[in-house]
Amino acid sequence: MRIAATTAAAIFVLDQVSKYAIVQGLNLIERGVIDVLPPFLTFRMAWNRGINFGLFANDADFMRWVLVAVALVISGWVWLWIRRENAGRWAQISAGLLIGGALGNVIDRIVYGAVADFLNMSCCGIENPYAFNVADISIFAGALGLILFTGGDAKGKPGKAGRRS
Fold it and tell me: Where are the domains of the chain?
């Protein structure tokens, strides 16, 4: 479980440092938009009160705490699941990505009342209206990794990816 814990800690720190450096350090919170390599990379300030793409966004303080609780419960469940399964290296890394990202967004909700999103990427004539952050990328990659690197065969034995490395 050391791999999962190290990955979660690294992602948490990377997420929080990147948010502080961009949102506070570059004053994106007041500037709103900074063109870095337009249109491929733009820093665009967005406060996400909901989940992905602003779903379930609500200005009610109640929803903020519901989302904090859900993230903490899911993180705890994933930790216990991976630990109980004696998961392999890639499953632990995936769990760490998901947990570190979820905890990074939890801190935002507690401190700011919403998740600080700032990365905006567009390409090939398609303009992306959404912003995201390091935690969001990690949560997505972690969830995908858990799908790919956990589970077993029909007899309940771990598959190749699920075996401990």
Answer: 2-26+48-115+128-162
